[in-house]
Each structure stands twice: as structure tokens, then as C-alpha cells.
């Protein structure tokens, strides 16, 4: 083991020095096992396992399906870009929180507070019906009113980001397959923005702040675009090349961070079916890991 330890470079993006040290060890020896990493770092196996879980959650590593489990580092450029996007989203979310507090304190003319479940439901419906060009939605539970169903009027486009936990049943996933839908592990707030000039921001189960043109609405729009970049598509491209439509959908869910068990539950199939199809996808894309398969599918436009 070398005595020299390079200075950490990822701390600004929320990666602790020990996580980065293990990530560097993976970069030096891709497809390492826990035993390999324990030997390379001099750490006990339980310490290696703890930091491997952290790397997986950060998107800095992926795990192969065979035994013994091997770990593959994410491509540094892609991994750092994802971490940076998350950091930007956190900053925008913090600013948004401050703006909400300011709104509650000042009650500017550009906002209106709507109270009561019936009034809230009616305003959500009216806002949808009045859309002329675009509706943006951040969708998460709990639902006090039913989620907005896209009004497929001519010229009105919808973009929806679903919270992973809100898609608990296969039927939910089928409803979310339409174009303009993406999935994110954690959607921070519920939001509807109509034509980029009216925003509906729930602050409690039966209270909604309606926003007109304001710096807060601008911040919400920036937050939506940042989250859209991070979210994974739920509407795969037309079935072309080596992947079928179902394969593309499975890969999109895997890219969103779902386990095989969670994917099987959402697709309504057996876990062994998911594992078998994933092996076929890896072979079709000439990839050794899911992360690599996701990158190659994205480069070839199969998940757009």
C-alpha cells in the first residue's frame, strides 16, 4: 500500500474523503471484489462494504450480477457531472425554500393563497383547462386530490417528473409511459406550472400558493429543468436496433436506480425474468455493467 495519498477533489460535491479514496482504488482496479478492495486499501471488509454502499448510492460505482460481486467505477466525467447537477438542484431547492418563507412573510401581490381541499381541487382543474402551450408537473404523494390527467389538447405539451415512490403498482407505470414523462428517486416538492406564467405550489395538504410572474416562479422553473436533466426517461425510443421496447423500459428503470426486485414488481413479472432480460441487454450492448449499458443506450438514443 502506497504511503502517498492524493488530496481529495470531490468533497465540494458532497463526497467524503474515504468514499473518494475507495473510488480511486476502483479506478485503479475496475471489477474489484470486496476482498480485492480490502487488500488494496488495507481496510477491513466491513469498512469497505460500508463505503461501497455509499459509492453505489452516489452513482460512483455499479455492481455486477455474478458471484462474487464485482464493482465497476463510473466514468469520472459522467459521475462528476451527475454530482454537480445534484449539487445545483440542492442549491436551487435551498433558494426556493428561502423564497417560500419570504412569500409567506410578505404575501406579495403576485401570489394568492387557496385554502380547502375542494377549492384546491377546483383550481388545479381550472389551471389545466386554461393551458395554451405547456404544463410542467412535479408529481409525488400523498395525493389530496387526484393527480392531473394530461388534457391532450392541440398544441399543449406536458412534461412530468414522477417520484419513484409514487409508482408503486404496474398500472401506475403504464400510465407514466407516455412521452414527456420521467422518473426521479426523490422529487422534492409538488408543483404545477402552466404556460410558464402560473404556478401552483402546495404548502400543506389543503393549502396551495398560486404564483404569478415572480422571482419565485423563475426559481421553480429553474428547479424543474435541473430535475428534468437528472431524471430518467420512462418513454423509451421507438424499438430499433438491439433492444425491444420492453428492454428499453427495463433499462430506463434500472438507470433510475431500481433494484431487480423493484423492477419486477413494477413490471408485474418475476425477478428471474428481469435478471434474464438484463443479461440479454448487457450482451446486446456489449456492456459488462448496467452503468455501462445505460451510457451506451443513451449515446445511441435508445432512452430518449
Automatic annotation (TrEMBL):
MF term (GO), any: DNA binding
UniProt-listed PANTHER family: HTH-TYPE TRANSCRIPTIONAL REGULATOR TRMBL2 (PTHR34293:SF1)
One Pfam family of this chain: TrmB
InterPro entries the record matches: Sig_transdc_resp-reg_C-effctor (IPR016032), TrmB-like (IPR051797), Tscrpt_reg_LuxR_C (IPR000792), Tscrpt_reg_TrmB_N (IPR002831), WH-like_DNA-bd_sf (IPR036388), WH_DNA-bd_sf (IPR036390)
Protein name (record): Regulatory LuxR family protein
Biological process (GO), any one: regulation of DNA-templated transcription
Organism: Kribbella steppae
SUPFAM superfamilies xrefs: C-terminal effector domain of the bipartite response regulators (SSF46894), Winged helix' DNA-binding domain (SSF46785)
Segments forming domain HTH luxR-type: 236-301
